Amino acid sequence: xxxxxxxxxxxxxxxxxxxxxxxxxxxxxxxxxxxxxxxxxxxxxxxxxxxxxxxxxxxxxxxxxxxxxxxxxxxxxxxxxxxxxxxxxxxxxxxxxxxxxxxxxxxxxxxxxxxxxxxxxxxxxxxxxxxxxxxxxxxxxxxxxxxxxxxxxxxxxxxxxxxxxxxxxxxxxxxxxxxxxxxxxxxxxxxxxxxxxxxxxxxxxxxxxxxxxxxxxxxxxxxxxxxxxxxxxxxxxxxxxxxxxxxxxxxxxxxxxxxxxxxxxxxxxxxxxxxxxxxxxxxxxxxxxxxxxxxxxxxxxxxxxxxxxxxxxxxxxxxxxxxxxxxxxxxxxxxxxxxxxxxxxxxxxxxxxxxxxxxxxxxxxxxxxx
Length: 370
Fold this sequence. Notes:
By secondary structure, this protein is of the alpha/beta class. It has helices spanning 6-13, 20-27, 37-44, 50-68, 80-87, 90-99, 133-149, 164-170, 185-188, 202-205, 242-245, 251-257, 260-265, 279-288, 298-306, 317-324, 357-369, and strands at 124-128, 154-159, 176-180, 195-198, 229-233, 269-272, 291-292, 310-313, 329-333, 352-355. Helix 5 (80-87) packs antiparallel against helix 6. It starts with 5 loop residues before the first helix and ends with a helix.
């Protein structure tokens, strides 16, 4: 949140001295806090009194001190893991995150096997996905690299069903077996394994000092060469998770702010990389002559991405797939800021970013005024 647009929050929620507690509650609900605290204070000073600012600073001191404590409880300070990861201390960060994930261990797992084993030689690891498609893509590539380094270790890697064909095609490790997360559940739950971990344990097992995703294996797909083609992805499927929806961008804003009409005039073809579209978006795309695919899985999506010269996508699985395919991709941000794409922490050093926060706010403000 180092680039938090407080002016948008001021207009959207009407924050002021009268409801400063609401603001701070809202602010502290985010996983990552601003590291440049002075810049943040300078911004909110424009609509809060000195008294309120002093209250904020006192709260901030207490919170930041928690990060530096050596005897903190991971159960109380779960965000500490992300703080360490973003600051570059990957070992301490990922270890803290593992401590917070014990409550998500599958029911058939013996909890005593959930750990970072001291010796892996001739052992079997069972690895399951912890989050969504994007994370599964990132960490599959890391585990591939691990398998090529640790040839005596057997890895049973559980894949999100929609990614199975893509991963299976890209798996060239003899010591890695793949199973589908949902379809093969009864099979892999009966497999012998010595240790269990989630897919995001990869940085720990690789002993990573810097989490540079661009160094990991490229996923294999059929290469379809098409000149002057642009891929776009602006909205995830409807979910109950409001945090995910914060990543979405209204198609009209997405299209206009990226000046896609001019690309059409320059001879580019534009295709949607989404599997699901709203009726309103379909009508808009039909008028623009955009190609719509009926993707069944990410293998088909990958082939479409390979045919594109450039891709514009919000922060979702398609963005990570573009990275894994070494494509020219720009990440489009809404109110969600994508702190993990900050070039200073080394996660995605080559990714391009475009923030449409203000344009999206104006779009919704106009809708409300009507």
